Amino acid sequence: MAFISRISGYYNNQDDDSIRLMNKTYTERTAKYIQLVSNLKKNFAEDFVELPQVVFCGNQSAGKTSLLEAIANVQLPRRDGTCTRCVMEIRMQETSKTSGWECSISLRVEYDENNNPLPDARRKNLGFGEAIHDPSDVHLMAYRAQKALLNPSTKHDLYLDHEPLDESKEEEDEIKFTMNTVCLSIKGPNVPNLSLVDLPGIVEHIRNVDPEVSRQLVTTIKTLARNYVKNQNSIIVATIPCKEEDENQSIHNIINEVDRHKKRTVFVLTKPDRIEPETHGKWIPKLQNSSGPDYFVVMNPNQEKLNKGVTFTQAREEEKQWFENTEPWCSSTFKDKLGVKRLRTRLENLLIEKIRESIPEVTNKISNRLKKENNILKNLPPPPLNAHSAISNVTNKCKESIRHKLENTETELNDKNDNLWEKMRGQLNEYKTTIKNGRPLFVLKSNNHALLVDVLENISTQNCDKKYDSIVVTTKAIVNKHSNRRSLGSEEFFKETTNIKDIIDKNRAHELPSRVPYKVPNDIIKKYQRHWKEHSTQCLEKIFDIFWKEIEQIIRNSAKQYKKLCLFLEGRAKKRLESCKERCEKLIELFSDLELKKPYTEDDQITRNKSVYQSQLINLVPNDTEAATVVADVKSYYELSLRRYTDYVCMTIIYKFVFEFSEDWQNSMISDIFVDDTENANGHLKPNELIEEDPAITDDRDRCEKDINRLKKIKKELEDFKFSML
């Protein structure tokens, strides 16, 4: 902005009134900058971005109120203690010479009575009375506005006619301090274009209150000051009495935290008439240092002159005369740093430049935040239209999600172990391995050799020239225990096995000689089948857990908008899934009973296999043909039985449990919900009750929509401003 750089150099030798007369464009354009910030604040833009402003801060009794009055040309509340108890914002905007002077007061309520932030729905800007056209009336109305903020349970408009009383007669306010703001919007000819924030004066204790309350209030006031000045777009005005050391001021410590190099801080020295003679030395170098922080000196009327009714015009003239006739000021080389008018012009230029510089960043942040909020809203479920369509949408979504899971056609693939079929297949493989590990194993025994015969593998013919004396039956666990060949033929191993010949002898009854009792192979087969049913039901339970976790997650994702519907669907789905499991358990029980009653098959292949096995075994154990026959019987049938049983169990779990539930889902869920439009004797909830939206989602959507509306308004303000400056 070239016009700013052209004008800013004039303030050294010209007062602000003459600048305005010389450059009308400057006045009009700077007024638009202040109006922009004012409009953004009304839309609570500071929730999203840091807005430029001039923040006045300092210790109490540092002359801050007098300085603000001098800049704004209005009287502010001075009653003891009052002005330390809320924030005051003064927005000033110059208008044409033909316009009259006016001041509008409003209350910006953003905090509750405990100074906790209010939710968006409860935040508000409240107009306070009608526009004021006499500057002398501002003092009283600003006082009344503060009283309204300090008594939040009372309607604010009841304080419009409140008359101040002596402090001893005034009713005690509901709260001692509020972080809410009294806003003064001043417009008129020759009004500086400024946006000022008057913070409560920093104190170390507060009179006439409980010590603990005093400590809390002091902490709150310091926190408030810190929050305002840490805004990187804030211009900090620190008021310091000349008779005190600036490093000893509490505000100095706060400024050091947020603006260590004092790039955006202006120090204003007040009450120069109270400096002891010839003790100006500590301030002169700072005022002369053009490369260091900005320092100004102002001279405002004391209380005696205020009581006599000195006017602002008189005060500025007296200030001018005082600096022109008092050493060391009158002979100084930094006259551009003396007086309220020059300070006011400096602050105006700094603020306008700060606003101008911040607009691109503010615009960018608002646009990005608007995109972000739109994306958040897009990902939130839409509000329910009616019960039937909402519930149907959820159940359809569940059905489709289950279908995609079972068909393994999910659109999103990732490295996580969340593939349903991978989990279930892993469990089925584990089940089949467990069943196989329980099979009988036979060992052909001789004095020097041992040969393992697995019922599920072909008999080894590598050592067919070797002969064995007997055959024992054992388990995989015992074989694994004696895993090496030498150990497998050891006496320790055979102590844990059972000789087939011994089993035959114990079970022999009235059979013909050389006939193996039918009971022997049957008992061996049944003995190693007895845990099949237990393992099968355990497998079903594990598949149930895997499948239910998937169903539960699908329901929660699909119905997350409606807590009651989600709980209802979870309950009904689990009940249906348990019913499917019970039917599956009955089928497993049937298969187990059929397999465990007596060996049976119509498969002729078993006869052919038995002949081959029997021939091989008799060749290996020629002296125990009965045992060889038993092993051939067991091996040929057990292999068939195991494969047949595990195949049917796995098929039953998949089709009669998993897929049957999936096919049953849609109709059963809809019928469960829409039994009747009223609650019936079975405790069904009304459909309308089921789609009561989760309050958290409703709140998120409401917040998002409100933020989007505010952001759109803010964006439009920025666009309109840009257009107006063309």
TrEMBL record:
<dbReference type="InterPro" id="IPR030381">
    <property type="entry name" value="G_DYNAMIN_dom"/>
</dbReference>
<keyword id="KW-0342">GTP-binding</keyword>
<dbReference type="GO" id="GO:0005737">
    <property type="term" value="C:cytoplasm"/>
</dbReference>
<dbReference type="InterPro" id="IPR027417">
    <property type="entry name" value="P-loop_NTPase"/>
</dbReference>
<dbReference type="GO" id="GO:0005525">
    <property type="term" value="F:GTP binding"/>
</dbReference>
<protein>
    <submittedName>
        <fullName>6844_t:CDS:1</fullName>
    </submittedName>
</protein>
<dbReference type="Pfam" id="PF01031">
    <property type="entry name" value="Dynamin_M"/>
</dbReference>
<dbReference type="Pfam" id="PF02212">
    <property type="entry name" value="GED"/>
</dbReference>
<dbReference type="GO" id="GO:0005874">
    <property type="term" value="C:microtubule"/>
</dbReference>
<dbReference type="GO" id="GO:0003924">
    <property type="term" value="F:GTPase activity"/>
</dbReference>
<keyword id="KW-0547">Nucleotide-binding</keyword>
<dbReference type="GO" id="GO:0016020">
    <property type="term" value="C:membrane"/>
</dbReference>
<feature type="domain" description="GED">
    <location>
        <begin position="627"/>
        <end position="726"/>
    </location>
</feature>
<dbReference type="InterPro" id="IPR000375">
    <property type="entry name" value="Dynamin_stalk"/>
</dbReference>
<dbReference type="InterPro" id="IPR003130">
    <property type="entry name" value="GED"/>
</dbReference>
<dbReference type="InterPro" id="IPR022812">
    <property type="entry name" value="Dynamin"/>
</dbReference>
<dbReference type="Pfam" id="PF00350">
    <property type="entry name" value="Dynamin_N"/>
</dbReference>
<dbReference type="InterPro" id="IPR020850">
    <property type="entry name" value="GED_dom"/>
</dbReference>
<dbReference type="InterPro" id="IPR045063">
    <property type="entry name" value="Dynamin_N"/>
</dbReference>
<dbReference type="GO" id="GO:0008017">
    <property type="term" value="F:microtubule binding"/>
</dbReference>
<dbReference type="InterPro" id="IPR001401">
    <property type="entry name" value="Dynamin_GTPase"/>
</dbReference>
<feature type="domain" description="Dynamin-type G">
    <location>
        <begin position="48"/>
        <end position="360"/>
    </location>
</feature>
